Amino acid sequence: MVFLTENKKKGFIGRSLDTIERVGNKLPHPVTLFALFAVLVIIFSWFFSTLGVTVEHPTQEGEILVVTNLLSAEGINYIFTSMVGNFTGFAPLGTVLVTMLGIGIAERSGLISGALRALVMSVPNQLITAALVFGGIMSSMAADAGYVVLTPLGAVLFAGLGRHPLAGLAAAFAGVSAGFSANLLLTSLDPLLGSLTQHAAEMYDPVYAETINYAMNYYFMIVSVFILTIVGTFVTDKIVEPRLGNYEGGITEKVEGLTSLEKKGLKGALVAFIITIAALALLIVPTWGPLRGPEGEIINSPFFASLVPVILIMFFVPGFVYGRITKSIKGDKDVAEQLSDTMATMGAYIVLAFAAGQFVAYFNETNLGMIMAVQGAEFLETTGFTGIPLILTFIVVAGFINLFIGSASAKWAIMAPVFVPMMMGLGYSPELTQLAYRIADSTTNVISPLMPYFAIVIAFAQKYDKKIGIGTLISTMLPYSIAFSIVWVIMLIVWLTLGIDLGPGSPILYTR
Fold this sequence. Notes:
Layout: H1 12-26, H2 30-51, E1 54-56, E2 64-66, H3 73-81, H4 83-88, H5 91-108, H6 111-121, H7 128-138, H8 145-160, H9 165-178, H10 189-204, H11 206-209, H12 218-244, H13 260-281, H14 302-305, H15 307-326, H16 332-344, H17 347-366, H18 368-383, H19 387-402, H20 408-425, H21 430-443, H22 454-461, H23 470-498
Antiparallel strand pairs: 1-2
Helix pairs in contact: 2-17, 5-10, 5-15, 5-16, 6-7, 6-8, 7-8, 7-9, 7-12, 8-9, 8-22, 9-12, 9-23, 10-20, 12-23, 13-15, 17-20, 18-20, 19-21, 20-21, 21-23
């Protein structure tokens, strides 16, 4: 047997996944989806305005929130005059583009690919599974590079060791995709989601929103890296690989080692990274550090408000040094071209940001988000459905939505304006709500056939067996999704029980 083949008679899970794929494929493109949502907000604003729907603002005593009608003369005026500002003011737009400048240099110079290869090739054979999972989790610092570098590399490594290549592919895919939110470093995902969370929190409590920083989930995600590495290794070695059986495909490959120039480049990049960290530390560690707060405080200091340029520098400098040593960067023209190429890949995101910016701005202007949040929180309070059951339900809902809409930012742009204020009304911090969302979004990536890189992973697997399809890959990845979900939920419950901060100055509970 080369690979497990899909059963002709599909069970409940198989039929459910087929339905998800069929329905998801019929959904409009995310850009179209946001445009439709923006139109619906305009229509709903007229409808609920004529009904006279109002609520009392939860944090500003005596203030009554009414629905602003965007089909009124003033509303139409707002739609036309705010369109450009809604786009340029869309919270994640600038943060994502700036961070991608640094990450783009690190990726296109070859640093990210070289570092991942060095990681998985430098460990003993008995630790290769753990290295693949760990490398996959850490690859999120380079956005989507792990999908195209580490996933096929995992299959090649396992095949070369006489192990089942699909098990290696699955281990790497689990780390890259199911563990996407975890990392030892701050990645582009942190400011991307954090800016949306902060913007949503401003609707409910502008003063509290100012205290939110992009590292709000950092402590939790650091611990998650090691826990998920252990869990991913266990699932691969004890569940997935035994289920696949012996590989008899006859394809064995040898991974090409790093060249002497690449090794020299990695050493240079490491030195550059250490020097960069030391230089940045001078801005925050000493009491006179210019990025400390007014009274020498670190939490809620200018440093945490400057994490986007910090991430840019941390990736740019080592990437540039690596490129110079390996000759992938010969001069300033190469730097400019690599930066331009990186921005060229962001075209789809910029278009999405335009449509999403209109939707989010309309949602805020009409007060529909706040009204839904206040009324939703009041309803949940009357039912007594709060605490851990509420958090778990939110994770399930967000995970289910992820099966149909793959983009993490697109989903959060829709969900944050409603759920962040709602959870604040129930006493839970925006930081906690974002963390619950990140858990749901990551763990279900590997079983979502609509995830953008799902088809690419199948193509990598078909190199070893042309019969493999969506059902085979999903059945292989399902144990990872379940195990990561269970472990992450247990971690979250422990955090909730002990009241540990989720990140620097990021509490679990919200207090006015």
